[in-house]
Each structure stands twice: as structure tokens, then as C-alpha cells.
Amino acid sequence: MTDIDVIDRCIIALLQVDGRLSHAEIGRRLDIPEPTVRRRLKRMVDDDVMQVVAVPNPHRIGYEIHAIIGAKIQPGRIDDVVMLLTAMRQVRYVGITAGTYDIVIEALFRDNEDFRSFLTVTLGKIEGLRETETSYVLEIAKRSYRIGLAADIDDEQMSIDERQLLKRCRKELGMLEEEVELLHAANGRAIQAERNT
User: Fold this and answer.
1) Is 182 exposed, middle or buried (0-12, 13-18, 19+ CB in 10 A)?
2) 105 near 68, Cβ under 8 Å?
3) Positive or negative CA dihedral for 25, 49, 147, 187?
4) What torsion, rounded to 10 degrees, do the Cα atoms 74, 78, 81, 82 define?
5) Cα–Cα distance, 153 to 168 (Å, whole number)
6) Alpha helices of 66-151 — where are they, by DSSP H?
């Protein structure tokens, strides 16, 4: 595990709210130098602490079907099955689990034909796959990739400077969340107005 401090956690937390923030903007919000932000981000990306990626809304880009699939695997075949599943374009998540299923899969499909083919043909060809149970996701009530890094910090063991930085970070997070929310609302109104014309 890589050690991350309050500065790292605040940088990540800000980027979770708005991944487009520049190094300079993060530095301004946290009152730390831009080169410090740049170095820390590079280190965290290099150490696989975080990734900076675009996360599209699947339904807005043509993936109409979202499924969660629980799979039971023959003993000794889990690694083989995982290797095959992780290479499939439809699969966006594979977790090896304890409980009812050996593996849980999250997958996206463009239409019912793509979905049916995956379930009946693609999965049917996998040796070692004994049984599956599929849940068709009707509606997503919450989709979030945010981990409460700034909210989860226990500040009792911190220095005064670290506490002040955390306080500033939490304030900036609240303000940034409001800014992003207003922007999303304005974009939503613009899209709706465009559809109505």
C-alpha cells in the first residue's frame, strides 16, 4: 500500500468532483504550489494510487443494456475464466467473490441481440463456467466513482497545518460540488431546450 497524506487525499478528492481541474487550479484551491500538485499527481498515477480517465455515461453513448451476472465456476478454473472474461469488450468489471457466486461480472450491451448472444453463445463457450444468474439493471439510482477521501480523514493525529489544510480542502470541495451541480443543471436545461426546438 502506498502512503498518501492529507495533501494527496485532497488532490484526489477535488479531481473526483471535477477531473478537468488544472494543476494550477488545484494548487490555488488548496493554497499549495502548482509544482507540488504536479509532482504528487505524477507519483500517485505512477504508483497506481489513482487514474485520471474520462468516464462516459453508457446510456448516452449507445449502451442500452446493463447487466450484473453472478457466475459459479468449476474448482480450479477461476483464473482461466477470469482471464477470458477480462478480455471481453462487453465486460467492464470482474470480481472474484466469496459467497453464492465465484465471480461477479458487470457488462454493457448495445441491444438485446448483443445481450442474448453474450449470454447464450459467448458465455456458453467458456470451459469451467458451470452456472450463471443474470440481473438486468432497469434503472441506475446511483453511479459514483468517488471515495470520500477528505470526508473519511480522522484529524485527531494531525498537525495544526494539516488540520488547516483539511479544513480548507473540505470548504473547497463543498464550493466545487456546488459549481459542478450548477453547471450540470444549466447543461441539462440547455439540452432540454434544444430537444424542444
Assistant:
1) exposed
2) yes
3) positive
4) 160
5) 13
6) 78-86, 112-117
pLDDT in tens, 49-102: 998 888 888 888 899 999 999 999 999 999 999 999 999 999 999 999 999 999
Task: Enumerate the CATH 3.30.70.920 domain ranges in the chain, comma separated.
Answer: 58-136
Q: Which amino acid is at 115?
A: F
In angstroms and rounded to an integer, the radius of gyration of the C-alpha atoms of the chain is 21
The cell 432540454 sits on which residue?
Answer: 192
Q: Which class in CATH covers the domain with range 58-136?
A: alpha beta
Q: What is the pLDDT of residues 3-59, one digit of tens each?
A: 888 899 899 989 988 889 999 999 999 999 999 999 999 999 999 999 888 888 888
CA separation for the pair 133, 69 (Å, rounded): 6
Strands 103-109 and 65-73: antiparallel
Q: Which of 49, 2, 5, 21 is nearest to 176 (CA)?
A: 21
Of 11, 2, 45, 4, which is closest to residue 29 (Cα–Cα)?
11
How many Cβ atoms are within 10 Å of 36's Cβ, its own excluded? Answer: 15
List, as one string, the DSSP characters of 15-71.
HHH-TT--HHHHHHHHT--HHHHHHHHHHHHHTTS--------GGGGT--EEEEEEE
